[in-house]
Amino acid sequence: TVMMEAAMAQIGRYYRIPTGVRTLCSSTKVLDAETGMESGIGLTLASQSGINIIQGPGQMGNANLHSLLKLAIDHEICGMAYHLRDGLRVDEDTLALDLIRKVGPGGTYFLEKHTREWLRKELYLPSEIIDRKTMPQWKRGGSKDVVERAREHVESVLAGHQPTPMDPDIRKDLDDVVIGIMKRHKIATLPIGPS
């Protein structure tokens, strides 16, 4: 499947049309190493192939299940894969030959403004879901695995989320469309929405 998605991307690029794949949808039913492997390999290959529409973040069980934890992890996988796809910029500014001559052997590049600026641009810094700690730091933090860290991240996002209220005119227009469909199909009520 992943190879077919890569081929599809190449055909799409050749014909200059957008291509989309469900590459982040895992077959697994639980969030485990297989889930990460399928999502990571699939998206990395898809992004390198030129896929420009990604479907399936958060999906498992062949799209029969959806997990907010997997969605958070998939967000990190997307960031890494697309950072890899963008590659390294190599030009006069990034090579900084004048800076190399100035600092010289044994010098410290981290004190240079140029290094700090390019480090921020070129270094991919994932969220706290991805562990970049030393072993002692990780142990002091509770020895949490990626699922625990994703759960904490999702809970934090949900706790702080304030949904933007829908414009009343747009809500009325949508309700009118739904009511029209309900009448056309002789549906008296819905569990949610207009009645």
TrEMBL record:
UniProt entry tagged with the keyword Repressor: no
GO molecular function: methyltransferase activity
InterPro entries reported in the protein's UniProt record: MttB-like_sf, MTTB_MeTrfase
Keyword Cell wall biogenesis/degradation: no
One GO BP annotation of this record: methylation
Record key words, sorted: Methyltransferase, Transferase
Family, per entry: Belongs to the trimethylamine methyltransferase family.
Protein name (Swiss-Prot/TrEMBL): Trimethylamine methyltransferase
Organism: marine sediment metagenome
